Predict the structure of Alpha-hydroxy acid oxidase.
Amino acid sequence: FSVAACYSIDDLRRLARHRLPRSIFDFYDGGAEDESTLQENRAAFGRHRLAPRALVDVAAASTAASLFGQPLGLPMAVGPTGALAFGWRDADLHLARAAASHGIPFTLSSSGTASIEAVAKASSGRLWFQAYVLRNRDFFWKMIERADHAGFEALVITVDLPVGGKRERDFHNQFSVPFRITRRNALDFARHPRWTLDLLRRGIPVFENLRGLELAALSATEIASSVGRSYDPAFDWDRLAEVRARWPRKLIVKGISRGDDARRLVGLGCDAIVVSNHGGRQLDGAVATLDALPEVVQAVAGRLPVLLDGGIRRGTDVAKALALGATAVLLGRATLFGVAAGGAAGAMKALDILRDEFLRTLQLCGAASPQGLTADLLRHRFTPKE
Ligand code: FNR
């Protein structure tokens, strides 16, 4: 079983599960509490069916799109995911390069395991930096300045995480960052000797961009979700306005589920909105992102690009999100599983699969380009009577 034998994102997920200790895989795969939002994000795609247009010339169909006036090879971006190097050495850099070679942006997480500068050096593509707002304001502004100096195109502020979600798989597995070896997870690692030897040889990954920040006060359960007391639950609209005033380039706000919030963000001068519930890792019971999308699209009324993430695993998922009004989608676990399954080759494979599926979907739908994905293509699934 290797990357070459993977034909879908689900295959890459299975390969990652096979390779990784359970505690690491579960940290990537899991969600909060009952994981109902995690499942709903996927289920929402299943409720929408496509009614393809027949007899359209799609011989020259193209996946090309644009965002902020710049071309995109695909209407996608790699979204921020923390702790990637637990899956594969230099995973952040591999994903950044794979994104650049597909002509799409890579978002470095502030809980990333590569530094802002290392990513800027490794990739010639479009780069976004995601930040949680920290209690330590000096540290926060310095981090933002570094992203500015490194030439990052956009700052992504994640707003669905005033406190960490309750991720119970991590509690059961005693998974924590900073990483600790306990009797329980030692057994888990012993079952994955190759992964464990590699990790010991290269050293345990750390949050490169949070180096120097006091992380010591975190309790095990807070660290377990990679989110600690260093993140500021008092962050609000006024402080976001301050970020807007100080960050000179594109500002993207990630973690929106409501039309009223979206409307307010337009007024605040942000440049794009990401409809997201953090992949079901925060508020369990939150509305599926695909279900929240129409309300946000309507509120924004074309004044800003609306992006979506959560549950994107197939080219058809991307098509459905675009048909409901998204400009592009962010990839979370799809590319994370790719890089965790096979490093650079796995990162490329995940994007190759999504590009191939998305192009095929365009052609099968009778759409010559992403702009051809309009609401008339969608039907609700018929539910047979009991
Ligand atoms: C995330 N996500 C995330 N978001 C963010 O803004 N900053 C971060 O550091 C992280 N870290 C992170 C780690 C892991 C392991 C996962 C799975 C997710 C959320 C991410 O950006 C995105 O919103 C979701 O992953 C989208 O859902 P899917 O596509 O994974 O289902």
